[in-house]
Specification:
The chain has three domains: about 325 residues, ABC transporter type 1, transmembrane domain (ABC transporter transmembrane region fold); about 150 residues, P-loop containing nucleotide triphosphate hydrolases (Rossmann fold); about 70 residues, 3-Layer(aba) Sandwich (Rossmann fold), CATH 3.40.50. It has a six-stranded mixed sheet, with helices on both faces. The chain has a four-stranded antiparallel sheet with strand order 2-1-4-5, with helices on one face. A two-stranded antiparallel ribbon has the order 7-8. It is an alpha/beta fold. A hairpin with a 2-residue loop joins strand 11 and strand 12. The protein is elongated, with a radius of gyration of 36 Å. Helix content is about 65%, strand content about 10%. The longest helix is centred in the N-terminal third of the chain and has 54 residues.
């Protein structure tokens, strides 16, 4: 079973590496050039120990005069300076080239991840913590970039150095080299164990980092609620649990690394002692010169140096593989809602909407809508009322295809919305929601959403239309006024007016309002109601509202209960029926009377 698990892990790593290499493919030429430059610098770094040993032997030799010895050493030194200088310059260009490749790959992966996240449905995004998605788009591509530009290259360099040094050691004195290599099988065994346990430890760290990011993202956004309900100690306790898990996983990783590196150091020192013992003996027996022994000794140290560095590179390699797994998990998540191959672009939207026996569920076998059927004519205002959870908002979500239905049909101007491109459909629809989201930037940015085709004249016209101009006059910078994160420097009513202007500036043929006036003051509500009366003349309007006073002038009111349509008619018609709508109206009337 253990062998199967290890083989599965090895196969998974190969599969991940193969997939990661596709991102390197556009830079194959540059990467090969950087690799060749790395080989050059590796070979030049191998020259110095041998040159040092030869210099010692020349100085001890009786075959040359003192002047000749000095000249030979000076010439050799000059050559070494030139070689070292060239190596530094080559190394600089190699490093710059690799870092540029790494940044390009990081840029590509971040763009791919963010683009894919945007294609996921609202339901899928709601299932993924924001903090984890942020980690996928930021930290993880950086880890993969580091794996390409540093880890893999250095891993190859170190392996190459070990091979070259091993060859040099055997050329200098093969018997001493054999004795030195006695520890290599033990090093291989230690490295194999390290690779196995470091993988598990590092994945634990990455998972706990993602969990912490998700917790921080959620709780920093909801800090106001935490403070209002005095939940700070509880949240600190929850954070401490996650923090301890992260600390424990880091300590596990440190322990694995802390055992491995001293073990390799001990084995390298053991090999060095063997080299010194047999080297000194060989000098006395005349088998090797002092200079070559010095070179041999230096090369032995250089042989084990890459082995210790490989430990760190294994760690970075695990970081890259762990990040790759997380990124590919996101990229392999197929969007639940996609355009059909033959989906069409709408040239116009007249505003006719029809639901034909629509059934919908978020969770299997828990139907939120049950056989919903109704029709809305162009330029009509239709309102949906009912208790919380009756399915009102779900109907609006389905019209813009945030979700797809399981049964039935939804038609826009007689066309099934699944046969219309989502971007085309949504371009004709304006939405005002109860929870207004404003982006960091300016008021102008939040109205246009950075669409450069919308000029200030159109923005001003939309602002005047919805009553936002009264707010803009109070702002020193007007449209250029800075909006802080989530629009927290604006009141709820001001944020709603900005969102209203955002919807109107795109000239929608269908306007959707989901509790748009629920959280605003009466003055702002009156402004919005006045604007809605104008919009009714130019576009179809669908409204969800709990305040029945705001929808009394609708062409039709649809009363929902437990996912079904219970009543349908005008305000007066429904009151005459004295059914569910009449009860809702009476309840609100009594509440208003007692306020």
């Amino acid at each position: 079973m253990r062998d199967f698990a290890e083989n599965h892990v090895a196969h998974q790593d190969k599969r991940l590496l193969a997939r990661l290499l596709t991102y390197l493919k556009p830079y194959t030429g540059k990467f090969i050039l950087a690799f060749l430059l790395m080989i050059i610098t590796t070979f030049t770094n191998m020259v110095l120990p041998l040159a040092s040993g030869l210099s010692i032997d020349i100085m001890k030799s009786t075959a040359y005069s003192l002047t000749e010895k000095i000249n030979i050493v000076l010439i050799g030194t000059a050559v070494l300076i030139v070689i070292t200088g060239a190596s530094i310059v080559i190394g600089y260009f190699q490093n710059v080239m690799l870092q540029k490749i790494g940044q390009d790959i990081t840029h590509t992966m971040r763009h791919e991840v963010f683009d894919h996240i945007e294609k996921l449905s609202i339901g899928q995004i709601n299932q993924l913590p924001v903090g984890k998605l942020v980690t996928r788009a930021t930290n993880d591509p950086a880890n993969i970039s580091d794996m390409f530009t540093n880890t893999i290259v250095n891993l190859i360099r170190n392996i190459l150095m070990m091979v070259i040094i091993a060859v040099i050691l055997f050329v200098i004195q093969w018997k001493m080299a054999l004795v030195t290599m006695i520890t290599v099988p033990l090093i291989y065994l230690a490295s194999s164990l390290f690779r196995k346990y470091s993988r598990t430890a590092y994945r634990g760290v990455r998972n706990n980092i993602s969990e912490m990011n998700a917790f921080l993202s959620e709780n920093l956004s909801g800090m106001k609620v935490t403070q209002v309900f005095n939940q700070e100690p509880k949240k600190v306790g929850e954070f401490e649990k996650i923090n301890k898990k992260l600390k424990k996983s880091y300590l596990t990783e440190i322990t694995v690394f802390g055992i491995y590196r001293p073990s390799i150091y001990f084995l390298s020192m053991l090999a060095t002692l063997f080299a010194i013992y047999f080297g000194v003996d060989s000098i006395f027996r005349g088998v090797i010169t002092v200079g070559l022994f010095v070179s041999f000794y230096v090369y032995v140290g250089q042989f084990f140096e890459p082995v210790q560095q490989i430990a760190e590179q294994f760690n970075s390699l695990q970081a890259g593989f762990a990040s790759a797994e997380k990124i590919f998990d996101v990229l392999d998540t197929k969007p639940e809602i996609t355009d059909a191959p033959d989906a069409i672009e709408l040239k116009e939207l007249k505003g006719s909407i029809e639901f034909k026996d629509v059934w919908f569920q978020y969770i299997p076998d828990e139907w939120v809508l049950k056989g919903i059927s109704f029709k809305v004519e162009p330029n009509e205002m239709v309102a949906f009322v009912g208790a919380t959870g009756s399915g009102k908002t779900t109907i609006l979500q389905l019209i813009v295809r945030n979700y797809d239905i399981q049964k039935g049909q939804i038609l826009i101007d007689g066309i099934d919305i699944r046969k219309i491109k989502r971007s085309s459909l949504r371009s004709f629809i304006g939405q005002m929601l109860q929870d207004v989201f404003l982006f960091s930037g300016t008021v102008r940015d939040n109205i246009t959403l950075y669409d450069e085709n919308i000029n200030d004249e159109e923005i001003q016209k939309a602002s005047d239309y919805v009553g936002l101009n009264h707010v803009l006059k109070k702002l020193p910078e007007g449209l250029s006024h800075i909006v802080r994160e989530r629009g927290n420097n604006f009141s709820a009513g001001e944020r709603q007016l900005i969102s209203f202007a955002r919807a109107v500036v795109y000239k929608p043929s269908l306007m959707i309002l989901d509790e748009a006036t629920a959280n605003i003051d009466s003055e702002t509500e009156a402004v919005i109601q006045e604007s809605l009366a104008k919009i009714m003349k130019i576009s179809t309007m669908l409204v969800v509202a709990h305040r029945l006073s705001t929808i009394q002038h609708s062409n039709r009111i649809i009363v929902m209960s437990k996912g079904e349509i219970k009543e349908m008619g005008t305000h007066q018609e429904l009151l005459k029926k004295k059914g569910l709508y009449f009860n809702l109206y009476q309840l609100q009337y009594d509440q208003n009377e007692h306020q």
